[in-house]
UniProtKB/TrEMBL annotation:
Keyword Repeat belongs to the record: yes
Signal sequence extent: 1-35
GO molecular function per UniProt: type I transforming growth factor beta receptor binding; type II transforming growth factor beta receptor binding
Record keywords: Leucine-rich repeat, Repeat, Signal
SMART domains registered for this protein in UniProt: LRR_BAC, LRR_TYP, LRRCT
CC annotations in GO: extracellular space
Domain of life: Eukaryota
Span of domain LRRCT: 301-349
Organism per entry: Jaculus jaculus
Gene Ontology terms: biological process: brown fat cell differentiation; keratinocyte migration; leukocyte adhesion to vascular endothelial cell; positive regulation of angiogenesis; positive regulation of endothelial cell proliferation; positive regulation of epithelial cell proliferation involved in wound healing; positive regulation of epithelial to mesenchymal transition; positive regulation of keratinocyte proliferation
Protein's UniProt name: Leucine-rich alpha-2-glycoprotein 1
Transmembrane parts of this sequence: none
């Protein structure tokens, strides 16, 4: 069970830990309902036994707390409508490992914000109003492994914004307004394993985008405006296991686009504008080589079920046990096959 620290515990001194806990929680709700300056009562301070430091969680606090315990390793400050953080906000907690700031209204961060916290591992800025990042923000963030910038207002990125990130494993840029990306964005992110670019406005990607990471495993590109998947994009990442390309406008996937992807376990191409796929595209995926662990989804595309689709249909026959949304994977043409299940056509035609 957790032990409790902080001012509230002092004021509740002699009570048993159970009662103490109940009152503390009650106090937390009451305090957050009427206080106007951030006091420790706006926040919950935990110091679990055997942990390396305090964990502070504040919700709906009106300002960033100025009294953080010096041993804070985990700080959550969410749903508070904060528009800015003091430049020196983190000076008092050099051991900070996780900083969760989602669901505020942050528009700007100061370049020196993270300098006092070189051991930071996780920075979550989900659902704020950031349109850019200051140069040098991560210059002391060599340990950071997770950076979440999901649902902000980024329209463009500069590779230099990420300078200093050497250990990044997880980068989430989903739900912004990104139109283009710089080719060298990931050049120095050798440890990157998950990249989420979903739900942006990307129409094209620079062919060299994925050069840099040594072993990317998960790539989210769903919910963009991509029209073409070329031969080059995925080539540097043969270890890719999860690939999401659904909800784009793909009309064309190059014959070599999946070449070398021997370990792909999940492929989502649903809800695009594909009418056919070129011969050879499917050669490295699934059976006969190796079963995909998760499966694949080709539904909601206007497939034209003529002879040109026979390569795909033969592959489907061997991999149907891994196919999602079978009932929504139908022919849009030719006329006499319109509305037919692709799998039914596989059986009857090829
Ligand atoms: C944040 O703003 C929203 C919308 O204006 C409001 O409903 C909510 O109560 C605010 N939260 C806090 C903690 O001030
Ligand atoms: C990548 O690393 C090289 C060598 O350390 C450096 O010169 C370059 O500026 C870095 N690029 C970015 C975008 O961080
Ligand atoms: C297909 O994708 C569009 C966005 O590109 C989305 O609005 C729509 O709901 C999706 N349809 C299905 C069936 O998922
Ligand atoms: C398959 O799709 C058709 C047409 O969209 C629908 O009428 C039918 O209920 C679906 N069947 C199943 C088993 O979902």
């Amino acid at each position: 069970m957790s032990s409790w620290r902080g001012h509230s515990q002092q004021s509740l001194g002699g009570l048993t830990s159970h009662l103490c806990r109940a009152l503390f929680l009650l106090g937390l709700f009451v305090a957050s309902a009427w206080s106007v300056t951030p006091t420790p009562q706006d926040c919950l301070i935990l110091r679990p036994p055997n942990s390396h430091g305090s964990s502070v969680s504040c919700f709906s606090a009106p300002e960033f707390p100025s009294w953080l315990p010096g041993d804070t390793i985990h700080l959550t400050m969410e749903f508070s409508n904060l528009t800015q953080l003091p430049a020196a906000a983190l000076h008092g907690c050099p051991g900070l490992r996780e900083l969760h700031l989602s669901s505020n209204r942050l528009e700007k961060l100061s370049a020196g914000l993270l300098l006092p916290v070189p051991n930071l591992l996780v920075l979550d800025l989900t659902r704020n109003a950031l349109a850019d990042l200051p140069q040098g923000l991560f210059r002391a963030s060599a340990a950071l492994h997770t950076l979440v910038l999901k649902e902000n207002r980024l329209q463009t990125l500069q590779a230099s914004w990420l300078r200093g990130l050497r250990a990044l494993v997880h980068l989430d840029l989903a739900g912004n307004c990104l139109h283009t990306l710089p080719a060298g964005l990931l050049a120095n992110l050798t440890a990157l394993s998950t990249l989420d670019l979903g739900d942006n406005q990307l129409e094209t990607l620079p062919p060299g985008l994925l050069r840099g990471p040594l072993r990317l495993e998960r790539l989210h590109l769903e919910g963009n405006q991509l029209r073409v998947l070329g031969d080059d994009l995925l080539a540097p990442q043969p270890s890719l296991r999860y690939l999401f390309l659904n909800d784009n406008k793909l009309t064309s996937v190059a014959a070599g686009a999946f070449k070398g992807l021997k370990w792909l376990d999940m492929l989502d191409l649903s809800n695009n504008s594909l009418t056919t796929t070129p011969a050879g595209l499917w050669a490295s995926l699934g059976k006969p080589a190796r079963d995909m662990e998760e499966g694949f989804d080709l539904s909601h595309n206007p497939w034209v079920c003529d002879q040109k689709l026979s390569h795909l249909c033969l592959w489907l026959a061997a991999n149907r046990h891994k196919m999602f949304s079978k009932n929504e994977t139908r022919c849009a043409g030719p006329k006499d096959l319109e509305g037919q299940l692709l799998l039914a056509v596989v059986g009857s035609q090829w």
